[in-house]
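Posting here for the record, re: NDP.
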Amino acid sequence: TIEFHLAERPVGWPTADTFRRVERTLPPLAEGEVRVANRFVSVDPYMRGRMNLGESYVAPFELNEALTGGAVGHVVESNAPELPVGTAVSHDFGWRSVAQGPAASFRRAAEIPGVPLSTSLGILGMTGLTAFVGLRDIASIKPGDVVFISGAAGAVGTAAGQIARLMGASRVIGSAGTAAKVALLTERYGFDAAFNYTDDAPVAEQLAAAAPEGIDVYFDNVGGEHLEAAIGAFRRGGRAALCGAIAEYNTTEPAVGPRNMSRIITQSITLRGFTLGDHVAAAPAFAQAMGEWFAAGEIVYDETVVAGIENTPQAFIDLLRGANIGKMVVRVDA
Ligand code: NDP
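Prediction output follows.
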């Protein structure tokens, strides 16, 4: 197997030196184990947090060990009757071309004709579920709500925009970092308005123009200036699902907090953070709803597919810089 280890803990932005490529011969399978040829490996922003030491909701990655994370592939050798050769499985062994372990560490992945297996890492998997949980369970979205989503052209964001509309939002607004992404939001993803946060005008100003009557729900993938702008735009009883703060993941100084916190009091605003691990019980409801929307042609999705397991570190770095539209995945085969 070819795998990538954490060679050093990055300070600020990760670089090629953060990772080490290792080639390893796997031992023969033990009883009850399977060997899986990975087809797609996921790179996700949360992995940046795991490269740091310190308290978080998942343990830090170990130095000089393969990075873990979502991946999907096919069983190529099996000592476990419940997962015969050829079964499609997803798992959390991450950044490697071949994964091996007890059958219980692998979950069967649905193979839908005409739909790539990589969707089980994105729109039909972790990032789709994150969007669903954030809107339904954390922000308690209601029909008629005006919804603002940052990081809107990414994996979670594109899912959240569509799910918000399907759950009855009256207006959905998104922000993203390039003009092409902004155009895609309104033209392909059904957002009613979108803006580029890298334009000269402050986020608060652009949000006010897109939502002149204010917002009810904010799905936060970014933190920082975006969060302050959303607090400023909330109508009474506004609710934010704090999902990510990617604007802060590679900074070396502590972030400045929103300067308008008193509005949270005067407008009865709720800001609520969440991590998906506490909400896995929502997975069946998500699978049911998303399955129906998907089958009815209500959902579109994009994947930015980087070819070749060798390019996994660069794909991760590019993800943090915004090179992706929709879910960023690595196809193991070049
Ligand atoms: P994305 O597909 O959204 O990829 C990351 C995107 O972040 C980039 O494409 C880039 O787009 C944007 N970005 C990078 N830097 C900045 C910045 N300084 N300001 C604003 N946007 C920036 O990743 P995911 O959909 O997988 O994740 C989205 C967010 O959700 C992340 O914050 C992630 O940590 C979080 N998350 C949280 C989970 C939870 O359980 N709470 C689970 C899964 C994800 P652009 O070109 O627009 O800048």
